[in-house]
Design brief:
The complex is a heterodimer of chains A (about 300) and B (about 300). Chain A has about 300 residues and is an all-alpha fold. Chain A has helices spanning about 5-10, 15-20, 25-55, 80-115, 125-135, 140-150, 160-180, 185-195, 200-205, 210-230, 230-235, 245-255, 260-295. Chain A folds into two domains: about 15-45, no CATH class; about 80-295, MetI-like fold (Orthogonal Bundle), CATH 1.10.3720.10. The longest helix of chain A has about 40 residues, at about 80-115. Chain B is built from 13 helices and no strands. The chains are: A mainly alpha (about 300), B mainly alpha (about 300). At the A-B interface, α1, α3, α4, α5 and α6 of A face α1, α3, α4, α5 and α6 of B.
Chain lengths: ~300, ~300
């Protein structure tokens, strides 16, 4: 990893020509063309979230014809209604997501440390086999997982989702930490060994203190993907209303009610997205890093 | 990599000590990924076609061959193919254009970039509600969403039924997917562009190459590894598409894809054997795309 992928993306590239010279006619034309295109794309990207936001403040019955209109009078009457449907599920989601993210991060850190700094025979093969686990369609393990769930008696507990997200998160968490630790020079490990520190000791006193950015990336990644997950939730807890998580509760609401309640549906959708949007707004850089780790190469 | 043979203080030989720390994950992945894939394969070879079957027998590949004659399955497969083509091209092109517009650096770049990327943080299920509305099929009077926008732009003739139309449903479905994933492609291409040393451009410029030629002959060839990565990532996402479809149109027939059909077969019809067979088909398609990619990544890493 010569230069970090996120650094490259967020690098400040000075538009030097604009500063140093007076722009030629064609250059001016292209600059204007670029801005027009950028704003056009911006409008397209914002449109769906605009519709989501304005229709969350128009009251319970909003009409399709007015979908794109600015609210004539703002009201939050749909918010308590949406909260009544979603609130419990959101707390339940938060409860399991925090746990699964922390466990995933710890496992990922240990695996990444060993697979980048203490390789053993076959460690490379194991890493590749882990990576394949990241790409599989989860349908291919879902029937046995549901059977295991019934067999192990986890069916009536939200911990089944902790288990699923921890286990199927191992590949990506290992990958993120392995790539992160690859940026820590091997000499540091060597120095620790010369001083007689064991593998565990080196991890605790040298690596762990340096791992905070890695932990942030993995925690955010696991948080976002578990929060937004629908597949595991619907297969593993789909049937029971007292195990509803954010996505399944939302889908139950929007899939079953008619257009009269569109205001509530819109509000609920926005409400369900707030946690991940906040994470993106405040920790976007770390989010991006997690996102791009799925592309394997930095 | 230095080979490590020194004994650590903990008494573990460092060479194998590492193995034991990874062992829990190896076991977990071994059982829950590979073991369960094997078990799915196993189920798909039996006649467990309803919950009434208690002692399933092996029936060979019957579940697979019967899929070929299952109109619903071929319909879903065809839908998936349409979706994949439009989704991959659309996302690739729009993400690439975004990257082209931003790569030289422009005032306000940070703002554009972060807004272009935000859709990645939202779930398909949440956005489904909005897209369901935006792509509402009402024409002319009473139209809302995209049809209304088209009317306002005097492009009323372009109004269509979006995802409920027989022919165009999957092309319409690709729209929200493109919206959601373009930022990802933008990020990958932006990283690709910025990994190219400035000297290369300068050298070409000094040699008198036009801007267009610099892109065509100097920059684009450098992006082919990025291009491959994007293709693989989008390809495997597309084959697994599930939330997006459920979020917008539920289990409706016109937008059926393999993952949705598998869900229905397995849980609504409790036909585990057939569900398992469909799952194995999806896995097979993903593996064809991903395994060569993993080999490629593995090789290029050795080279580094």
């Amino acid at each position: 990893m010569s230069s970090d992928i996120v650094d490259r993306i967020t690098a400040h590239v000075p538009s030097h020509r604009a500063k140093n010279r007076k722009l030629s006619g064609t250059a001016q034309f292209w600059l204007i063309f670029r801005y027009i295109s950028l704003f056009f794309i911006l409008a397209l990207v914002i449109l769906p979230i605009y519709v989501l936001v304005v229709n969350s403040f128009k009251g319970t019955s909003v009409f399709l014809e007015d979908a794109l209109k600015w609210p004539t009078h703002w009201t939050v009457e749909t918010w308590p209604k949406a909260w009544a449907v979603l609130g419990g599920a959101m707390f339940r989601t938060l409860f399991f997501v925090v746990q699964s993210s922390i466990i995933s991060a710890i496992l990922g850190s240990i695996n990444g440390y060993v697979l980048s700094k203490w390789r053993f025979r076959g460690s490379r093969m194991i890493f590749i086999l882990f990576l394949f686990g990241m790409f599989i369609p989860y349908q291919a393990i879902m029937i046995p997982l549901v059977q295991f769930n019934t067999w192990a008696g986890l069916g009536s507990s939200i911990y089944v989702l902790v288990l699923a997200h921890v286990i199927y998160g191992i590949p990506i968490c290992t990958l993120i930490f392995r790539n992160y630790y690859a940026t820590i020079p091997d000499e540091l490990i060597e120095a620790g060994r010369v001083d007689g520190a064991s593998m565990v000791r080196i991890y605790r006193s040298l690596i762990l203190p340096l791992s905070i950015p890695g932990f942030v990336v993995v925690l955010i990644w696991q948080f976002t993907s578990a929060w937004n997950d629908f597949l595991f939730a619907i297969f593993l807890t789909g049937g029971s209303p007292n195990l509803q998580v954010t996505t399944t509760a939302l889908n139950f609401l929007t899939g079953s009610s008619n257009q009269t309640y569109y205001g509530v549906n819109m509000t609920a959708s926005l409400m369900a997205s707030i946690p991940t949007l906040l994470v993106y707004m405040f920790l976007g850089r770390y989010f991006l890093r997690g996102l791009l780790s799925g592309s394997l190469k930095g | 990599m230095t080979k490590v043979k020194v004994k650590g203080r903990g008494g573990v030989t460092s060479r194998w000590g590492g193995f034991f720390f990874v062992l829990p994950s190896i076991i977990a992945v071994g059982i829950f990924v590979y073991g369960m894939i094997a078990w799915t394969l196993n189920i798909s070879l039996t006649n467990k076609n309803s919950s009434a079957v208690h002692n399933p027998k092996y029936v060979g590949f019957v579940n697979y061959t019967s899929l070929l004659h299952d109109a619903r399955f071929t319909h879903a497969l065809g839908n998936l193919a349409k979706f994949t083509v439009v989704f991959i091209f659309g996302t690739l092109i729009s993400g690439f254009i975004m990257a082209l517009l931003l790569e030289k650096g422009i005032a306000g770049e940070g703002l554009f970039r972060s807004i272009y990327l935000y859709p990645m943080a939202i779930s398909f299920i949440a956005m489904g509600t909005v897209w369901n509305w935006l792509m509402n099929s009402t024409h002319d009077k009473g139209a809302g969403g995209l049809n209304l926008i088209l009317l306002k732009l005097h492009l009323g003739f372009l109004q269509n039924d979006w995802y409920i139309s027989q022919k165009g449903s999957m092309y319409a479905m690709a729209l929200p997917a493109i919206w959601q994933m373009s930022g990802y492609v933008l990020a990958l291409f932006l990283a690709g562009f910025r990994a190219i040393p400035d000297d290369m451009r300068e050298a070409a410029r000094v040699d008198g190459a036009s801007e267009a030629k610099i892109y065509r002959y100097v920059l684009f060839p450098q992006l082919s590894p990025t291009f491959l990565t994007v293709l693989i990532i989008l390809g495997h996402i597309s084959m697994k598409v599930f939330d997006l479809i459920i979020g917008i149109s539920g289990k409706s027939y016109v937008t059926d894809v393999l993952a949705v059909y598998m869900w229905q077969v397995t849980f609504d019809f409790t036909n585990y054997a057939k569900g398992a067979a469909i799952a194995m088909v999806i896995l097979f398609m993903v593996a064809i795309v991903v395994i060569p990619y993993l080999r490629y990544v593995n090789k290029s890493e050795e080279y580094r």
